[in-house]
């Protein structure tokens, strides 16, 4: 059911420093910061030949990643995103298998303008999983 790894998202305590490290030390193609107020994050997209990295930084007081950074002050992997062809079919299959879908269970429009859902990390070995319909 799941397809390509669309991105790995990393919460960072200093967006400028992390962007500079990926650009200058790792030699990656790093985009400009984009505010995503609907998701409470500022995102920097890093294009790799086979996938993307997203650097996440809190935007606003009730950002969903502020608590993550409180627990992981030096940053850390926040979630992985897998592509699916039909997000409703994927959701229904996962729910039938007992996996918990976060929020209302209805897809939201994600940072790339595509429908996304998140799956409970406790159901997937401690890893927050995002599904994105491509
Ligand atoms: Co994501």
From TrEMBL:
GO terms for molecular function: metal ion binding; methylmalonyl-CoA epimerase activity. It is an enzyme of class 5 (isomerase). Gene3D superfamilies: 2,3-Dihydroxybiphenyl 1,2-Dioxygenase, domain 1. PROSITE patterns: VOC. Residues 4-134 form the VOC domain. GO terms for biological process: L-methylmalonyl-CoA metabolic process. The keyword Phosphoprotein does not apply. It catalyses: (R)-methylmalonyl-CoA = (S)-methylmalonyl-CoA. InterPro entries: Glyas_Bleomycin-R_OHBP_Dase, MeMalonyl-CoA_epimerase, MMCE/EMCE_epimerase, VOC_core. Belongs to the methylmalonyl-CoA epimerase family. This is methylmalonyl-CoA epimerase. The gene is mce.
